[in-house]
Amino acid sequence: MTSRLLSYVTLTLVLIFLLGPFVIIVAAALSGGETLAFPPQGLSLKWVMKVFEVESFRASFALSMFLAIFGTLAALVLGVPVAYAASRYRLPFGETIRTIVSAPIIVPGIIVGLALLRYLVIPLDVSVGVALFIAHTALILPYAVRVVSASLDNLRSDIEEAAVILGSSRVATFFRIVLPNIQSGILAAFILGFVTSFNQVPVSLFLSGPGVRTLPIDMIWYMEITYDPSVAALAALLAFLSISIVFLAERFLGFSRYV
Amino acid sequence: MRWSGGGQWVCPRTQHKVPTHVSESDGRTGAGVARGGLRGDRFSRSRGHPAFRGFRAEGSWTLASYAGFFESELNRTVFWRTLKLGAIVTAVSAVIGYATAYSIVTLPPTARGRMIGLVVMPLMISPVARTYAWIVILGRTGFVNETIVWLGLSDTPIRFLFTETAVFIGLLQLFLPLMILSLISALENMPKDAVPAARVLGANWLQVFVKVILPLTKEGLVIGGTLVFTGSLTAYITPAILGGSKVLMLETLLYQRVTVANDFASASIIAMILMVMSFSANLLLKRLATARNKR
What InterPro entries does the entry give (chain A) (predicted)? Predict the structure, then answer.
């Protein structure tokens, strides 16, 4: 009985530690005061409104959205064939290919950013935006490959063989048989990639220039110069956005099967 | 951190000089003054951005530069601090992780699923938002200080932000879920009767843990520990927001070396250190995974 009680106390304390900060953020976001303070002075939506008025937030939100959507799409265009080849064929250098594809997860993000800045942006005069796009695509690629591979492993290859035997070409089989069957895996990969890219900081750190900053980095800068609760409001909005995306994905896709 | 003498601190991001007495006693809780947040005109001089200047003027790269890197006291301090914080965060998260994971595993299935969901949830949220919450909580007019003053424990607010404690708390909150999840899957694979059997045979809880649970979940502990340790070593956001330039860690030092001093030699050395640690951790994980698949 005491051990039961002890475990409830442990769970409560750990959950307060893990989730309590969000309650505080939401409280701060709804504060009516001019500075961050707890307990908040009054209740208002003005800081939530202010988030939408800050020009740099709008620009960086647009950039982050662009990177998250198109970076993930590019990673899928590259990653789906890799996953397909790796699961259906015995490739020469298969292990090497797998290592290269998963490298962006292993190498700390800040180093990827630094390397791109030094060897791509500076000497070749590539624009920061392009470098950011490359970095985010590379970062998402491992996730895309892993999730799509998991989905392909569940797809029996004799369906494809049946289609080929019945006269379909290999390419047509891929588009008409394989792709429709791994749809939900691809969608899961997209969501995982989107969230990863959107929340990413270290990779983008060195790759910001005039007017080019991703939203999380913009938030860090903004919280250095001001001390009003608008960052709390933005943080709360982003937290709700991520949670609802993942919640919906879990609800409709059984997201956790793939991740 | 670059001290330009005369009690001045040069901001890593903006090269603004800030008298140190201001950053010692920042009137506000905010990251602003303490980290020299007077941003200045960073973006108006596009090619003049600190990171863009003087790239072609760097020196050659020999092993001697490693020795030189560790000659600097600041670099040594940062290196050991990073290892120390990583080790402490890993150890504490292991202790809390075992208690939490064991509590979760012994729950009935529905409740267990819900609890796992709640533990996973923070992982989906932007680390910037997660770290920012601690500014609200630990700041001068934050939740903790208001409570301390209200209880009469101290007349003046206590400084929590920009201390190792703040970075430790932030890192622990960031990485604890990874440890809990690794330990949950390890504990779930443990034979169900092992603990009751040991109890019936007269072992106390400490003996049960050391002689039964620990050996049977060793792998999960190593996996979780590696994730937490490398995560802490290569963290940028938490030390940047909660530690500022007072509590530099390897990644924040790297950023500073590049943007302030254009010191690519040091930056590359730090990058190498981070890569070596990250790769060896990954090799260890891979070896464990293949060892498990063989069984």
Answer: MetI-like (IPR000515), MetI-like_sf (IPR035906)
Lowest-pLDDT range of A179-193, A240-254, B59-73, B132-146: B59-73
The nearest CA of chain B is from the CA of A81 a distance in Å of: 24
Q: Chain A closest CA to B45's CA: distance in Å?
A: 8
Q: Please tell me what DSSP assigns to residue B192.
A: T
Q: Which of B204, B223, B184, B226 is nearest to B99 (CA)?
A: B184
> Has residue B15 been placed in a domain?
no
Whether B62 is in a domain gets the answer no
Q: How far apart are CA B126 and CA B118, in angstroms?
A: 16
Residue B145 amino acid letter = N
Instruction: Note whether B167 contacts A: Cβ–Cβ < 8 A.
Output: no
Domain-embedded: residue B55: no
Residue B233 falls within a domain, yes or no?
yes
Q: What angle do CA A70, A75, A76 make, to 5 degrees?
A: 95
- C-alpha span between B126 and A19 (Å, rounded): 13
How far B222 CA sits from the closest chain A CA (Å)?
A: 17
Q: How many residues does chain B have?
A: 295
Q: Does residue B26 sit at the A interface (CB-CB below 8 Å)?
A: no
Which B residues, 124 through 163, put their C-beta within 8 Å of a C-beta on chain A? 124-130, 132-137, 139, 141-143, 146
pLDDT in tens, B203-217: 888 899 999 999 899
**pTM score > 0.80 for this model?**
yes
Residues of chain A in contact with residue B127, where contact means CB-CB under 8 angstroms, are 199, 201, 216
Q: Which amino acid is at B171?
A: L
Q: State the best of B35, B130, B132, B175 to mutate against chain A, taking most chain A CBs within 10 Å.
A: B132
A19, A28, A226 ranked by CB distance to B136: nearest: A28
- Report how far residue B179's alpha carbon sits from residue B131's, in angstroms, rounded to the nearest whole number: 18
Q: What is the CATH number of the domain that holds B88?
A: 1.10.3720.10
Cα(B6)–Cα(B10) distance, integer angstroms: 11
Q: Identify which of A25, A110, A216 has the shortest CB distance to residue B133.
A: A25
Find the closest chain B residue to A193 by CA distance: B124
Query: How many domains are contained in chain B?
Result: 1
pLDDT of residue A259: 58
Domains identified in chain A and CATH numbers: 55-223+238-257 (1.10.3720.10)
Range of the domain at B133: 73-294
- Is the complex ipTM more than 0.90? no
